[in-house]
Amino acid sequence: MEAYKEEFITFMVESDVLKFGDFTLKSGRKSPFFMNAGAYVTGSQLHRLGLYYAQAINEQFGLDFDVVFGPAYKGIPLSVITAMGISELYGKEVRYCSNRKEVKDHGDTGILLGSSLHDGDRVLIVEDVTTSGKSIEETYPILKAAADVEIVGLMVSLNRTEVGKEGKVCALDEVQARYGFPTAAIVTMNDVVEALHNHEVDGRVVINDDTYKAIARYYEQWGVPSEG
User: Fold this and answer.
1) Neighbouring C-beta atoms of residue 110, cutoff 10 Å
2) Spatial separation of the C-alpha atoms in residues 136 and 127, rounded to whole Å
3) CA dist., res. 160 & res. 188, Å (int)
């Protein structure tokens, strides 16, 4: 595993973004882990997060795109800090764009904020985590209605690597199959377990043997079926 990925996993735990315990997800699933990107609240945390996104995007997609798009609401700061991270690390200037939940009819009008979109723009979408693909269902038509853009990919923080709505492949793979653009994550839950099982962060073991077994049971129920 690349060093920045191990650092990112530790960073998520230290920032209280990635937690382990008993959680009920929006889908109704009972999960032994939960990720909340809304817990990144300080300037230094957001700065580091933007750099991690920039590194992962460069590794997975390269930098041949014009706009970073973040779906409202959590994607709004993600798009901003990712554009900043790309500029800082690689000297590449990209624009940021996000959508509003409601169309604004005065001043800076419309559904979009940040940069406007133009025909021919290459757009990279950033999200925190994709569990059902619902936000992309909402985002894709907004982008396509704004201009004749090309979506070059979707980058999320964490791939939960569990089945999506159709129950056959993970949500990221469902998005890729449905819309035809590639998807990727900074890290997967397999990476998280590998990095944290019986390892300490801030003086405590984050994934002990009991938590490890709970995660294994969760994936027995909700994990992507193996082929063959």
Assistant:
1) 12
2) 10
3) 6
Other CB atoms closer than 10 Å to residue 31's CB: what's the count? 20
* Region for residue 44 given its phi and psi (left: phi exceeds 0; alpha: psi -120 to 50; beta: otherwise): alpha
Q: State the DSSP code for 168.
A: S
| Cα–Cα distance for residue pair 163/181, rounded to 1 Å | 19
Q: What amino acid positions are annotated as catalytic residues?
A: 104, 106
Q: How many C-beta neighbours within 10 Å does residue 39 have? A: 13
* Residue 107: how many other CB atoms lie within 10 Å: 5
Both tokens of 194, joined, read: 């590998």
> Residue 228's pLDDT is what?
38
The dihedral through the CA atoms of 66, 71, 77, 82 has a sign that is: negative
Q: E strand or H helix at 189, and its extent?
A: helix 189-196
Q: Distance between CA atoms of 130 and 159, rounded to whole angstroms?
A: 7
Distance (Å, whole) CA 72 – CA 77: 9
CA atoms in the 13 A half-sphere facing the CB of 25: 19
Average pLDDT by stretches of 10, the chain with 228 residues: 94 96 87 93 98 98 98 93 98 95 57 93 93 79 94 96 83 92 96 96 95 96 73
Do residues 131 and 188 touch, judged by C-beta distance below 8 A? no
